[in-house]
Amino acid sequence: MQLPVLSLTIWVPVLAGILVLFQSGDHLKAGARWTALIGSVLGLVVAVPLWTGFNNGTAALQFVEVYQWIPRFNIRYALGVDGISMLFILLNSFTTILVIIAAWEVIQEKVSQYLAAFLIMSGLINGVFAATDAILFYLFFEAMLIPMFLIIGIWGGPNRVYAAVKFFLYTLLGSLLMLAALIYLYNETRGSFDIFDFHRVPLSLTAQTLLFFAFFASFSVKVPMWPVHTWLPDAHVEAPTGGSVVLAAITLKIGAYGFLRFNLPIAPDASQALAGFMITLSLIAVIYIGLVALVQADMKKLIAYSSISHMGFCTLGFFIFNQQGVVGGLVQMVSHGFISAAMFLCVGVLYDRVHSREISAYGGVANKMPVFAAFAVLFAMANSGLPATSGFVGEFMVILGAVKVNFWYGFLAATTLIFGAAYTLWMVKRVIFGEVANENVAALTDVNKREMLMLAALALLVLFMGIYPKPFTDVMHVSVDALLKHVSIGKLGL
Amino acid sequence: MTMDMKTIYLLVVLCPLAGAIGAGFFGKLLGRAFAHSITIAGVAASFILSCIVFQDVMAGNQFNGALYTWTVTEGINLEVGFLIDRLTVLMMLVVTFVSLMVHVYTIGYMAEDDGYQRFFAYISLFTFSMLMLVMSNNFLQLFFGWEAVGLVSYLLIGFWFKRPTAIYANLKAFLVNRVGDFGFLLGIGLIFATMGTLNYSEVFAKAPMLKDAIAPVPGFTWNLITAICIGLFIGAMGKSAQFPLHVWLPDSMEGPTPISALIHAATMVTAGIFMVARMSPLFEMSQAALSFVLIIGSITAFFMALIAIVQYDIKRVVAYSTLSQLGYMTMALGAGAYSAGIFHLMTHAFFKAVLFLGAGSVIMAMHHEQDMRKMGGLRKYMPITYFTVLIGAIANAGLPPFAGFFSKDTIIEAVHASTTPGAGIAYLAALGAVFVGGLYSFRLVFFAFHGKERWHDAAHHDDHHDDHGEHHGLAPGEKPHESPWVVTLPLILLAIPSIAAGWLISDVVYGTYFGSAVEKGVIAAMAGNFHGVMGMMAHGLVTPPFWLAMAGLATAYYCYIVKPDLPANIRKKAGALVTILEEKYGFDRFNDWFFAGGARNLGRGLWKFGDVAVIDGFFVNGTAKVIGWGSTVVRKVQTGVVSTYAFAMIIGVFAMLTWLFFRLY
Lengths: 494, 665
Prior knowledge:
The complex is a heterodimer of chains A (494) and B (665).
Chain A: H1 5-21, H2 29-52, E1 62-70, E2 75-81, H3 86-103, H4 111-130, H5 134-143, H6 145-155, H7 160-188, H8 195-200, H9 205-222, H10 231-238, H11 241-266, H12 268-273, H13 275-294, H14 299-318, H15 323-354, H16 365-368, H17 370-383, H18 390-405, H19 407-414, H20 416-431, H21 439-442, H22 449-467, H23 470-489
Antiparallel strand pairs in A: 1-2
Chain B: H1 2-30, H2 32-58, E1 63-73, E2 76-84, H3 86-109, H4 116-135, H5 139-157, H6 164-195, H7 200-206, H8 224-239, H9 248-251, H10 257-266, H11 271-278, H12 280-283, H13 287-310, H14 314-335, H15 338-365, H16 383-397, H17 403-417, H18 423-449, H19 485-500, H20 505-508, H21 523-526, H22 532-540, H23 544-562, H24 566-573, H25 575-582, H26 587-637, H27 642-664
Antiparallel strand pairs in B: 1-2
Helix pairs in contact in B: 1-2, 1-4, 2-3, 2-4, 3-4, 3-10, 3-15, 3-19, 4-5, 5-6, 6-8, 8-11, 8-13, 10-15, 11-15, 13-14, 13-18, 14-15, 14-17, 14-18, 15-16, 15-17, 15-19, 16-18, 16-19, 17-18, 18-23
């Protein structure tokens, strides 16, 4: 009897969350925190077999679990991972620990609800990556919006309601079209909601194109791609630190993952026909958003725009249809998970002390917080794509892949070398370096052990992945090759 | 044997890295002596091991192999690995030797600085990165080293991070270098796209078959090799500060002087020169690329030398001199004299390190005063510094029998003999720069070390350096004195090769030293005219470069010793010309206005118009408004008055009946 690993990665955090929820009330704060921490660590522990037991040699689904759920519509509780999805479950389970630690002393209001929301969301997100039944996927996909909506709406900043509603409507609008697409595919497959049946069913180019746009409506908002990105800066600015971390590190990845799991394999011919469109949007994200990031006065907004720009590399990589591009895009997703989490945690460290996110409220932080400054510069360099950090790997591979397809794609994408460094390091200059700017900065104390732990863990991952990315890319190769082969054959000849 | 050597190669790079980690993480805990001991031990070990590697390579051994596979894509291994040949080992020796000298020197120079341990960690990290760069056998690792030295340069220029000028300079340096890296990365991309490998030896094997191929650049019919070479060279222009990407190097003088010597003169800035020499099999295939290289080099060599004449800051004089000398190296590459370029790289590393470290010794003696107008007559008080700087200056001016003569003269001869298009103009630029080089080199010596003692003059204060709130200059009545031995010993040890390294020319340039590591190029044609070191010196005395350099010396002597009031008068008379030079031809202003300002305005425009007005204002909030407005209208229907509903119902029924009626008949 095999352990139901994937089910555990989903339900352990959810159960832990429910347990935490019972520990509401001020006198139970400490208990709630420890329960949440243990729950999140357990959540990662149960996910470890995915890494250790993963077979890199096959594109087939692994750790498969299938149970009938609603036989009337042939809806099944079906789970499984391949080289495209597996790493994100680990990334998500790891990130959950970080946000629990990040909230430790910081969140004092409604502690148990806050922590429970993150734990439950973590389980649901693992469900998104593990589900191989379309309806199950859709349920997880929608359900995870609710905790995030609450996190922003309850623990957020002054303009949190506008941001939460904008976030919710933006993402919900897209997913309704996706639901219609899933039902259409259910009919086409004569009664199956298996995503991999969707991959196999023959479809005309028109049908593929319509389906492509239905899925596009849902996933492009999540990534987010230009021009449906404006919810993200607002959501980040209002979200508490933990919310921003999960938003940037994980939820954006769901959008990119959706393109690989739905758009490319279900509508391969439409994907090829629309590649120019997708590449154009991606390159606009890289350049336009890079320039917009340059002029942001709010650190979180700047990092939010930087996220959009970096995610542009993922969608660019997916739609150039070669191995460097798709693997590079996936690597970029994982790496951006580490780096954006780290950058938002860094802002959180400052915000907890000074209660401002404005760049102009800082200056000369390095004088008072040398250890923090070292981490901040490291992550800033990773964000600028410096070799030997994870930020380099994906961008480098995508640029190599893009030059192969069309030199000018590579040319435009490579501008990130300049813009990415410009907006990131200009912020570093104004926040970290210089003379002590004001009394608030003068009163700063360096990172404590708790903060040190989070930042050091991320720093090690960022460096490891930059110096030796092979273990990560090895996981992806076979699955990506199978996907690319599927896309190149297409469905019209079936 | 090879097994052992591989371990040694690894140790060469890992020793400095271990030193950096030790000083960086445990420096605060274990103190200053620990930090400098462990880093110096690391770099010294690296130097000694490099000597062993040198012996091994001279015995005829080579190495080209992978350490580990970074990643695999489409069956192509992207690796981290070493290529150890005669070019590599020469660079290893230069890098580790100069680095070791600078490490020792730093003990004295940074003695009073709070960031002592951090500084040692950085310079050891730099040594590691630079070694990774020169020892690489593939473009991936080359790019790693390339960016890593850029990172350390960024950290070190901004070492005194409280100074606004320092953190402006380091950001500028990083971004200008990134512009170069942009071209570099695209060059690498073209190599990968067309050859399917990033390994040097495989690239060199495949390139001849693609000699006449057209680059896969839609819309243009460029030759592939030319496009690749120009892309790579744009990277070199950033790193080696060639016009118009030279703008970062003068500002990099904001960093502490030891790193100006190590990074911004002797080693890092020569990475571009090294890279082009390493790629000489590719560049030899493209006359167009070589011509581009030659022209860029000659512009840099001549015009940057001119700026050095009007500088008062002692470090900036040396910085512009470095730009000019890098221009010479680039010209050598463009002329096809790769070994001469590398030879000048080596001699320059020694004499420019002497000049920078000598300048640093002066700055220490003057209590952080860098303005030469406040110096004068220092030779009496600091004889060792004086003599070593004098040696550096003579070498820099290119007078025999000092090292610079041999390398620079060979370059000028090579440009003269070259068939690269543009060589005629380049030759004139090279000759012009020789005169200017003689002038600025001896101007520095005479201005700072000879003449009246101006330490306590109230007038002139250098506007570059009075904005960080520290006290500069000597206290009233105080006299400068010679620096401690940790400072003067490296000066002496570097001055020796500044004199003697040139005598290696028969082997390194004309001989068989490089073997097949570097293309012969134009040097093959020149070898017939070379008759040994003595012959070259004798011949040098009757060629224009020697007399031009002497004329520069004489001009400097006349202006700064015979008639010390003359320069001020010339300045007044030649106002516009001096202003152009003081403004550095306006590049800084233009870049700030056009690129930095332009990017910010564009970003603000896209944000305010694109994101805020159109997307959010019109589409998102507009949609919300339309829905809101629509529901307001529809809401009016729901009045709650029964009679209104009944009336609507009757109308509805009537309308349906009418429709049915018309449909039936």
